[in-house]
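Preliminary data (for renewal application), zinc ion complex.
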Amino acid sequence: MSSNQVIILDTTMRDGEQSPGVSMSLNEKVEIALMLEKLGVDVIEAGFAAASEGDFAAIQAVGRAVKDSTICSLSRAVERDIDLTAEAVGGAAMSRIHIVLSTSPIHMQHKLRMAPEQVLEQGVLAVKRARRYSDNVEFSCEDASRSDLDFLCRFVEAVIAAGASTVSLPDTVGYALPQEYGNLISHLLNHVPGADKVVLSAHCHNDLGMAVANSLSAIKAGARQVECTINGIGERAGNAALEEIVMALRTRQNHFGLQTRIQPQYLVPASQLVSGITGFQVQPNKAIVGRNAFSHQSGIHQDGMLKNPSTYQIMTAADVGWTNAPHMLVLSKHSGRNGYREYMRQLGFEFSSDRELDEAFLRFKRMADQKFPLDEADLRATVSKAA
Ligand code: KIV
Ligand code: ZN
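Predicted structure:
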């Protein structure tokens, strides 16, 4: 489907909850879902209805609470799961059934222990079953990036013909390289009858640190849905990070020419909410939502930033929801005179002469050589000659 809109499917509460060490209560899922709705997420994957009674109830509760996002649950390609899934999402204002079945030789042989033709038949039957309940059915060809390309093409054609309106091609084990993954999407779009009438979706894992790059490559090649999580949490090394994909599309609008419905000022609040609930701290240097993402410590950078922020920043902290701007300058032994003067100005000190500034700056440098971080009392002491 060619459109300049990229659909954002957030799976923080399904794939994200599969992170070792994470479990979310019903109330926590509702709280996260309301934040995702405010953020502008198109599709919220709230869980895996057949996984547990608790997950089933949480998906129902999310469906009741959210009005502006489509609520989706993952389902294995078996009747019981599909029926439960339909029931779990059925009360939502907008809902989707998301079916998954593996298509790679390694998964079909060792996990499913089925012949490829049997798997194909099961996939088609599953989509037909889901279509009894909903016309919004997504099919994920698990381990698509390690699947035989001709078989995958036949498979995708068959599930589209059976009624899937979104087809996802997961890089389940984070094995693909960006160019390869983009080529996979282009190949399907160009060779599978009907592929241009449905939405192709990217779902990338981060085992080699390429989940976001692979997702962007898929979008460039024509995928119009991307599946991602807040802070990139997920199985093993995680999933593609929602905040990184969204800000890459916005910041490099000149390259992609595409839009999302995401309101970026909620990215940091969403990140902090998910981190608080899961107990997974965000690494300081994490793009967009890490506490250092908009901080500048070296003298050269601080000087440039003070003259014109675009010298060292391609987005503003406020754009993505950071509300406390003072963390922009971090004082250390690497800092320069201009950064020090500006920081001290923010603390209420104006130097009356260059000499006064130079002397205080020298005291600051000596102190910074001994100690990091310096607190406010330390910095105040640098302006007194006794320091
Ligand atoms: O990574 C994957 O393949 C998945 C599927 C269950 C959609 O998460
Ligand atoms: Zn996944």
